[in-house]
Design goal:
It is a single chain. The chain has 11 helices and 2 strands, in the order αααααααααββαα. It is mainly α. It is elongated and about 70 Å long. The two termini are 38 Å apart.
C-alpha cells in the first residue's frame, strides 16, 4: 500500500512538472519531456497515465533527473529524511559564523580542560589572538556563547548547519575551508591521530539520494558513539565528499 501511495505521488509530480513546462513552452512535447528525463517516451507516457507501476530503480532515476530536493527524493524512495540533532541554522544565522573556527571554538567549550581565555583558545586552534577575540565577539553578539561570568558557556548546543535541500555560497565556502584543513592535517598531524580514506567506483547517479541518506545516518551514528564517551580531550573534524570524476553526457 505504501509503495502505491508513493507511486501515485510521483506520478502526480511528473504530470505537474510536464504541465508547468508546457505552460512555459507551448511547443514542449512528451517526447521532449522523456528526452529531458532520459526515459523512453512510450514508457514515460504509460507511467504518467498509471498504466505501468513505477519500479524502485525508476523512482531513483526520476528523482535524480527531476532534480528533487533530498527530502522529497527520500520520501519517493520510501525513506525517511534523516533527523538532525539540535537547532538547525537557517542561512541568516549560519552566514555570520561560516568560518571553520567558529564551530571549532564552540566544540572547545565541551573539552574537560576548557579555559575561558582567548589566548588559550588561540593556541589550541592555531589562530591569532585578534582573530580569536573577533570570533568570540561574533559568537557572543549572535547569542551562541555567554561570557558574562567564568566559566564561559555555550547558549545553544548541538547546532546543525546541514541543509538537505540546497546550498549557498557561504555553505560552499565553509566546505572548502574544511577540505583545506583536511589537506593541512595530512602533512601536520601524525598518522595515529587521523584517518584518511577514499573509494573510487563506477556507480549510478540514481543512487545519489540514497547515498546522501546513508552518509547522514553514518554521521549520526558517529556522533552517538562519541557522545557515549564523555571524556572529551580534543576537537576533531569529519569531512566526507561524494562526487563524480566524470562529466555528464550532453
Amino acid at each position: 500500500m505504501r509503495t502505491e501511495i508513493i507511486n501515485d505521488q510521483l506520478r502526480t509530480h511528473l504530470n505537474r512538472v510536464f504541465l508547468t513546462k508546457c505552460e512555459s513552452n507551448p511547443s514542449y512535447s512528451l517526447r521532449a519531456y522523456a528526452r529531458d528525463l532520459k526515459v523512453d517516451a512510450t514508457l514515460l507516457s504509460r507511467l504518467m497515465k498509471g498504466e505501468r507501476a513505477i519500479s524502485e530503480v525508476m523512482r531513483r532515476r526520476l528523482a535524480t533527473e527531476l532534480n528533487l530536493p533530498l527530502s522529497k527524493s527520500m520520501h519517493l524512495l520510501g525513506h525517511r529524511e534523516p533527523k538532525l540533532k539540535g537547532k538547525f541554522l537557517l542561512d541568516d544565522a549560519f552566514n555570520p559564523i561560516s568560518k571553520w573556527y567558529f564551530f571549532a571554538i564552540l566544540e572547545l567549550f565541551m573539552l574537560k580542560n576548557f579555559k575561558s581565555d582567548a589566548k588559550w583558545i588561540a593556541k589550541k586552534l592555531n589562530l591569532s589572538l585578534s582573530e580569536t577575540n573577533a570570533a568570540l565577539e561574533v559568537l557572543t553578539v549572535c547569542g551562541h556563547i555567554n561570557r558574562d561570568q567564568i566559566p564561559w558557556r555555550v547558549e545553544v548546543e548541538d547546532m546543525a548547519w546541514t541543509n538537505f535541500n540546497a546550498t549557498t555560497r557561504e555553505r560552499m565556502n565553509y566546505q572548502r575551508q574544511l577540505i583545506d584543513k583536511a589537506r593541512e592535517a595530512i602533512e601536520q598531524v601524525g598518522f595515529d591521530r587521523r584517518e584518511n580514506a577514499s573509494l573510487t567506483l563506477a556507480a549510478s547517479a540514481d543512487l545519489v539520494p540514497e547515498i546522501k541518506l546513508r552518509i547522514q545516518n553514518f554521521k549520526n551514528e558517529l556522533r552517538e558513539l562519541v557522545e557515549g564517551h564523555k571524556n572529551y580531550g580534543e576537537v576533531y573534524q569529519l569531512v566526507i565528499s561524494y562526487f563524480p570524476f566524470t562529466n555528464e553526457d550532453k
